[in-house]
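Hypothesis: this fold can be encoded by more than one sequence.
Test: take the structure tokens below, design a sequence, compare later.
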């Protein structure tokens, strides 16, 4: 709208909706560093090469070009300022903050259940990509996804979704709906109709696929996840309530458990002089683990080894015997 109005005398001022200024610094209201140059080029009506930019930047330029192409000619002249006023007064942008990947996906899925719904394959893609924090890896995964889906779609309508259904059923379906009235759908049935939700609810069962950035083979992941570095001693009721959640969501609950579990949480290292004194005097390599990847498991295993060495140190045992 800003560019279409140009310098016409009856133009509606839009700059304050695009920029903000604080402490002498001018910035876009949607201020993301990687998008800044592209937005400046669009704002100044200049061309911008996005061939080497992240997908989000390429999407910004592509959608801007779509709007330019589809904008109705009948609004371009006398009606343009009135349309801008109407747009400002009647269109609302609502910011929704998600505090975890799980929350983000739930919001994404709920929003897309309204209006034009996405199919299960698109929902699955959104969930999987949302769990890749590294943007370069997320972009690579997205490109691989597009290539594979395109190849499957070449075989015919719905062949891409049918391939996923068949693969998920062959790999993970352990139950099927009973042949009686009122029976609930089980793995086999749900993987045929809503495999995107089934995958989210059974992420622990599909763990190796969600750790493919660190493990090339499922057997490698299965062997690694059972190493002693992943051990925690917790009440049975805790595991029943939180055992299936991703690590990041369980972490806040670990802080209410025993010291070994609490030591995973960053807050354990704040305002805790007794524990900090113990770390300093024992030289044990305690540290927080906001994530728990392969390197974190290795570090935790090294900690447990050092704890065992301290506990079974012959000199300490001799001192205990003399008391």
């Amino acid at each position: 709208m800003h560019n279409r109005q140009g310098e016409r005398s009856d133009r509606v001022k839009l700059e304050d909706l695009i920029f903000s200024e604080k402490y002498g610094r001018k910035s876009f209201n949607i201020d993301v560093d990687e998008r800044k140059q592209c937005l400046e080029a669009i704002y100044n009506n200049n061309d911008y090469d996005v061939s080497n930019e992240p997908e989000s930047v390429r999407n910004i330029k592509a959608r801007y070009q779509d709007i330019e192409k589809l904008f109705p000619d009948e609004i371009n002249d006398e009606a343009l300022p009135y349309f801008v006023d109407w747009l400002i007064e009647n269109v609302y942008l609502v910011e929704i903050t998600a505090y975890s990947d799980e929350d983000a996906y739930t919001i994404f899925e709920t929003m897309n259940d309204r209006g034009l719904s996405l199919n299960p394959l698109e929902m699955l893609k959104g969930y999987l990509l949302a769990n890749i924090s590294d943007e370069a890896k997320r972009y690579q995964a997205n490109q691989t996804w597009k290539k594979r889906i395109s190849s499957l779609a070449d075989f015919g309508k719905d062949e891409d979704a049918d391939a996923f259904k068949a693969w998920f059923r062959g790999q993970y379906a352990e139950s099927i709906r009973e042949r009686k009235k009122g029976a609930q759908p089980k793995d086999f049935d749900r993987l045929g109709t809503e495999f995107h939700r089934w995958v989210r609810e059974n992420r622990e069962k599909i763990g190796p696929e969600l750790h493919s950035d660190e493990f090339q083979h499922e057997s490698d992941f299965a062997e690694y996840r059972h190493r002693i570095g992943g051990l925690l001693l917790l009440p049975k009721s805790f595991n029943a309530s939180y055992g299936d959640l991703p690590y990041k969501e369980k972490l806040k609950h670990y802080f209410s458990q025993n010291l070994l579990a609490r030591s995973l949480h960053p807050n354990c290292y704040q305002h805790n002089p007794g524990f900090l004194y113990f770390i300093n005097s024992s030289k044990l390599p305690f540290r927080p683990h906001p994530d728990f990847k392969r390197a974190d498991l290795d570090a935790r295993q090294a900690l447990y080894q050092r704890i065992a060495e301290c506990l079974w140190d012959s000199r300490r045992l001799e001192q205990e015997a003399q008391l």
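The beta strands are 19-22, 25-28. The chain has a mean pLDDT of 84.
Hypothesis status: open.
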